Amino acid sequence: MTESLRRSSGWITACLVALAALALAGSAQVPASTVLLPPGAVAPTDAQRATARKIGRILEEAHYSHAPIDRKMSDLVFQRYLEFLDPQRSYLLASDINDFSAYRYQFDDMIRTGNVEPAYLMFARFQQRNRERIQYALAQLKTEPDWTVDESFDFDRTKAPWPADAAQIDDLWRRRVKNDALSLLLAGKQWPEAVDILRKRYERVLKRIDQVTSEDVFENLMNAYARAFDPHSSYFSPRSSEEYRIQMSLNYDGIGATLQVVDDYVTIINVIEGGPAAVAGTLKTNDRITGVGQGHDGAVTDVIGWRLDDVVQLIRGKAGTGVRLQILPGGAAPGSPEKTLEFVRNKITLEAQAAHKEVKTVARNGRTYKIGVITVPGFYQDVAAQNAGDENYRSTTRDVAKLLRELKSENVDGLVLDLRGDGGGYLPEATALTGLFIDHGPVVQVRDTSGRLEVLDDPEPAPAYDGPLAVLVDRMSASASEIFAGAIQDYHRGLILGQTTFGKGTVQNLVPLDRWSKDPVNGQLTVTIGKFYRVTGESTQHRGVEPDIPLASPLDTKELGESALESSLPWDRIAGVPFKTSPVTTNELALPTLAAAEDARAQHDPDYRWLVSDIAAIDTLRAEKSVSLNLKVRREERAHEDKERLERENSRRIAKNLPPLKSVADLDKAKVDEPDVMLDQAAQIMTDVVTGVRVAPAQKTARAG
């Protein structure tokens, strides 16, 4: 870690001079220190000003790009902040943007001084416009629209110009409300029902905008700075920092319930197995929390209408402490008798987000083959438990090693490691997981901000599994997933199946902002401090890991991935490092033969044909940027789409000797039975591997580098 991260930030008292009015004037430069926020607006705290100054120094001094926060960067941060405020350009007017331009080139000075009031003033204007738009939307519900008019609603406005005036934004929102209502009519609602649903929906939005805190605004603002450097540097507020810790460790102290706001009530969506709530058996799905009390006799706080994260903070707490929930049973009308439930908090493990296994069976030539599948949703490690000396701390590598032992005892013939949707996580877990499958050697190269190059070796003393291996990836497999998949491919240890991965070849360091500082700074910063390279010297940045055998996927590589993100760092390469490829392994099969066999099988596979046709339909819808607001036209379009969906599904079912479905309603009910085509294909390819003929490595297919 560089010395810049060890220095404490200085304390500068922010002196605000009350000179500005509510409106911002023209494009003239207005000193940030002279901004006066409107009465009742959220405002930055002294701690946030100190935090801003520290973040600015860390980004300039520690980020891999060495980019200065100057006039050019100020303009970029300004644009990022507007994207956070109004990404669809549906609230702010062109005149607002013109007013905001007074601060376009002051974001560099703002973060150095901590005088971030202009950003809060911009938010106050957005908040005002938000209220105006929702009030306008509510007013539109008084009169039923004319559904016969041939007009459309542009739902993708990310590249659209800002509305020029009130008349233009009114027309935009008239169409938006009409589309919201039309969607409900297409779902079988009548106009009075649609009005009731939309009124409640809009009123909830109105309430939420007034629940935004200074911490929320500050987090978005600091992320505008961080994302101007690259897409993966981020600021986490103290509350978000705790959520990040939970994701990395897969545990927290609480009662074990998944919550969601439904009609102003924080509602129980799921009770987590093994947690205090599940053990007690008294808390049920759809129960609504109306109050929370601490301990056995603490006062109960009414939480109806509260933000979800505020209620969560009341329920969570140190293991061994008590909490009481005042519950309105699911389905009971407001005003019905409530019940009070008491729980003792305990450590909750998020097993659903941990690595898990299954065994797929494939019939081939009169024999049944068992293909083990280990799904890895993320690269996690309970660092706090490890540092505390807990010998049973959770980690991806530990969990996968345990699953490997179980699968070996089940005598599987081959293994598929499913990394689809795995966005990465803790870097040391990528090298450790690789060590479960290769003999000791280098896994990845990391170049830091100073240009220093470090080679990270596999820390495992010996592989835990040396049998046939395939790694299944898709466009959302990123970072640590790409390190692992790239190493497996480079070592010729296994096949990479699926889709070109995300292309995130950068490394982030987590910096607690209160470390080495006596100032009241808050939260933590993940800052990009390096780039990683495969042992061959190739970078995965932008390009990702190319599969040995591509498989169809509904994910769009043009819209998703590092190459689609603004401010992403460029691709490059460095020299490779010596490494010894694996002996005769799955990657020494004739890849063209395997690919040809898979292609031939897929063409006759009803599930594969269904997936390809479904992807084509998705691509057609994806290309559309607007929808008709003529009810008859939309009904005809919906009927046509439903007819095609039903035909695609029934074509699949008939080919598999299954009874066809009679209606779209039946189709929606049957969605739970949709096949996982990519995983099924991967299991078939692995069966090809365990029954196939090995050939010389020279027959491998070429890979893009």
Descriptive keywords:
705 residues, alpha+beta, Pdz3 Domain, 6-stranded antiparallel β-sheet, disordered N terminus
Radius of gyration, taken over Cα atoms and rounded to an integer in Å: 28 Å
Form type: globular
Number of strands: 21
Oligomer: single chain
Which regions contain 5 or more consecutive residues with pLDDT less than 50? 1-28, 693-705
- What's the helical proportion of residues? 25-40%
Describe this structure in words.
With 705 residues, this protein is α+β, with helices and mostly antiparallel strands. Among the domains are: 3-229, no CATH class; 251-349, Roll (Pdz3 Domain), CATH 2.30.42.10; 601-691, no CATH class. It is 38% helix and 16% strand. It is built from 20 helices and 21 strands. The strands form five sheets. Strands 4, 5, 6, 7, 8 and 9 form a six-stranded antiparallel β-sheet that branches. Helix 15 (480-490) links the parallel strand 16 (469-473) and strand 17 (495-498). Helix 2 packs across helix 8 (214-229), helix 5 (117-140) runs antiparallel to helix 7 and helix 6 (166-186) crosses helix 7. The longest helix has 25 residues, at 631-655. It is globular and about 70 Å long.
